[in-house]
Structure of ATPase:
Amino acid sequence: MAKKQLFTLEYPVRCSPSILYEFLSTPAGMQEWFADKVDERDHVFIFSWNGAAVEKAQVVEKEQDKFIKYHWLHSSKDEYFEFRIEKTEISNQTILIIKDFAEKPDIKDQTQLWDYQVKELFHRLGN
């Protein structure tokens, strides 16, 4: 299996970091845009799509209103996906930064998937 590469995506968001963080770090928030059903037990999020596909991700690290990092339990130890919230200094705009891993030929498809998911998130946020 080819080694996956880290890639980073950035999206400007029109909402406060605290509201955005709720959508990135809680089962109720994640269920609004990321998966059809989301549960959490002992810092492990259980995501399901279409009533069947189930994936589990453990919260590795987090800081309120700043970032949350997840590790898919089926992935290698050094792979993760992360949501980071930053504010630009000049315009004070909120930026959502997503870091994820994919094999090089799949990065474009993964980027499109994230674009779709983030579009759904923005719809829920009223952006």
About this structure: Residues 107-125 form the longest helix (19 residues).
